[in-house]
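Technical appendix A lists one of the benchmark inputs used to test multi-chain prediction within the project. The record comprises two sequence entries:
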Amino acid sequence: MSTKEQRDRIELLQGTLDLLILRTLQRGPAHGHAIAKAIEWNSDDVLQVEQGSLYPALHRLIKRRWISVEEGTSENNRRAKFYRLTANGRRQLALETSKWDKLAGAIARILRPTEEG
Amino acid sequence: MWRGRRILEDLDQEIRDHIEREMQDNVERGMSPEEARHAALRKFGNVTRVKEDAREVWTIVWLEQLLQDIRIGLRMLCKTPGFTATAVFTLALGIGANTAIFSIFYATLLAPFPYPESNQLVVVWSTVGGHKNGVSAGDYLDWKRESKVFQILGAVTGDQFNLARPGERPEQVEGSYLTPGFLDELIGDKPFLGRYILPEEAVPGKDHVVVLTHKLWQQFFAGDSSIIGKQIRLDGALYTVIGVQPPGQPDRLGRQLVLPMAFTSEHPRCRAPSTELRP
């Protein structure tokens, strides 16, 4: 059943979706579908996001006050909910990004010790 | 929670919009509307689970379920008032009866005697023909003088009196004759007002003093704080009030006043409660 395309896709690690949403919203407010599209686009379709799982994640972030939600009009003049990064969220993004860099770097060094020289 | 409710209310519409947008994108990529719709739904995943997960972010689920259960329970009870009334009545009766029986059980069997070292307290009776009988004054005085078994020996007997107050109807009250030291030394009671009976007052001619219970003092003398030293009329004779007992336990004994027991031929019998010296 699984095609080659599907095999090459990677399931998201626990918690990374939150980070990707925050990163996406750094470029400005967006509605749910646009966030999903942006994540797919920017990862060259490698990251496999079940689009629905975006919404519980968005609610989680609102609850933590890292993003806010407001009514707005989408590109084709339809009402939509727009999510916006808050100051708290910006700080959290910086923190999470540096944590992620450290983790990725550490794992890379362990997996490929020779390449590090 | 309330912030969440707003967002949750709009979630359905938001999900519909999302799938529609995805469908639109698919159509633009050349899919047939039917294909586009299926692909969009597939990509979105399980809508119901998404909604549940979102709701779970905002609520403590078990608490909500508990409240729901309680609401359903109350509704069911309201639907069947007859059954509810019967059940409530049965429970009330059961709890009430249980409480009443336990109260009696506790007071009579479990509660400690409200006296100090009550395990050393005994009641002494005479026996006549193998049956319990009151103690004669002579026996009491002999025991008091000669027995080394008791730490304190006191005697009690009761009578009824007519208590008359000026300008008011006389009332019948219950009184006890007690030997000196009975209230303070034997029972360990402390007067609320004034003092208790002195040994020199247990002598015929000097025995016209009276100790009132708190209840009698309240009911008949309106809690008059200058009662000590005043005279009251019992069976036509004047008695000086020397003390008032504390409220509470003494009021539950049934007696309303205490007089000194002065031994004359009028006191042929008495019970003699005492404190034991050795167990």
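Strands of chain A lie at 10-11, 47-48, 67-73, 79-85. Helices of chain A lie at 4-8, 16-25, 32-42, 54-63, 87-111. Comparable benchmark entries are summarised in Table A2.
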